[in-house]
Amino acid sequence: AHVCFSLSSFAPLLHSALPVARNGGQSGRNRGLFRPSPVIYPGREPVSHELSDDFDFQESLLNVQALLHQHPKSNKGMLSMVDHLKRLCIDHYFQDEIDNIMDSSVDLLHSDDLLDATLSLRLMREVGYYVLADDVLQKFTNDNGDFNLRHSKDLRGLLSLHDMSHLNMGEASLYKANEFSSKHLKFALQYLEPNLARYVMKSLDHPYHVSLRQYKARHHLSYLQNLPTRHTAIEKLALAEFQMKKLQHQSEMQEIKRWWVDLGLSQEIPAARDQVLKWYMWSMTILEGFSFSRYRVEATKVISMVYIVDDIFDLVATQEELCLFNEAIKMWDLAAAESLPSYMISCYKALYTITNDIADMVRKEHGLNPINHLKQAWATLFDGFMIEGKWLSTNQVPTSEDYLRNGVITSGAPLLFMHLLFMLGHDLTDDNNDHILRVISCPAKIMRLWDDMGSAKDELQEGLDGSYKDLYQRENPHADAEKHMLDMIAGEWEDLNRECFSQTKSTLPPSFMGASLNFARMVSIMYGYDDEQKLPALEDYTRMLLF
Q1: CA dihedral sign of residues 111, 113, 118, 123
Q2: So what CATH class is 57-238?
Q3: CA distance from start to end of the chain
Q4: Model-level pTM?
Q5: What is the CATH architecture assignment of 264-546?
Q6: Is 267 exposed, middle or buried (CB count within 10 Å of its CB: 0-12, 13-18, 19+)?
Q7: Cβ distance 239 to 224 under 8 Å?
Q8: Residue 159 CA to chain centroid, in angstroms?
């Protein structure tokens, strides 16, 4: 999304708050868990992630803008600069300049240089050009469609090819591009100097398109700061952006914490999860941009209620109480909740209030009335939980296909995206309904498969849930269930890429498409348990962006 705000209003905020950001913005019990550490490379000084006290944000913007208005001998340097801006998450300040550069760089698609061709292909696909990868990459392959071995020594070309391969929409050349680039980058690791080897390893472990941009940005900045040729104006602007985002995220987190404590559900339902930080990380990741602060706060409230309702179904309520709870949700009336247990009444009131507050906000800001769609979304989620409960209580074993279909619903992702759709000012119509459902279902299915693939249980979660992996293994005892699920996840990514980057012009706002992509990217971070049942990537990500 193109972020619109007064730049001058952020300059004093940045100056006054920098000392706080330098201390990591830590507070309370999180101080020990998320203690920051300097980025140090062997034989080098620690990389500075701080700004001088006399830093001028407006001047920094103008300095980078001046770089983009230069007229180099070729567009190659400009394209590389656009890539750095995107990787550092500061491209939204220069959308007009980037559009002009992209328009004038179309000829690089026909370049005989692997880096030029693949970088232009990826960037153009990201900004909306429809370019067939097979056509662009054909010149780098032999008659069998295999990449020529002479490109195996082109490190920058291989990195770019590897990045491009993850924007696959089902193209044969990109399957081979991924295989070729991965093989030769891994082989090259043993011959690279430490800083470059570290960068290549991170590119392999966390490919750009399927990884969180905000997470990758800090690592990319550290890499740039160790290069012989540097663009200090870009680096300083990126640092300022990091600091401003951290301050805003800290403020949002404090607001959510106050709301959660005042709500009192963690005391009233002690068996339910109390993970407000983790819930906020979803919203912080999905919705990027300073202008979406209010939406991130409200989305976190929705996410928290999904988790609480899930725990009520799994851990707390009797089947009879759940039937009454389900009926009350369908009626959407506070009076309908009066016969429920007290903890359910509290949950019902919170859910009811959050949803109606969001509907009121959407009505005031966008002139839409989404309450019927939002009520239906909650009813659908409750029905999904009821189906899971029925399977469990009757010892019924669903097919893996039925389980996954229902599991997409009970992931809570469709409900969250329905709220986001309206918060971002878009309506649900007969014309766009199928497209929206596909954009929503892909990340939801990726989430369900990732979650079910791991053996780790969520913190404090002792309930009995089904598992697609177990059900598939039951139906296919000699198959490799995990490989099957990874193939399914790759297929969902291809479908999502197709929805976001295909030739058909989407009527959905870019911010909604971006939210869908970011949700899918967050899944591997949120469910990336290690052998000790910990989430190292999530801890690193949280420390980097919030504390």
Answers
A1: negative
A2: mainly alpha
A3: 25
A4: 0.87
A5: Orthogonal Bundle (1.10)
A6: exposed
A7: no
A8: 22
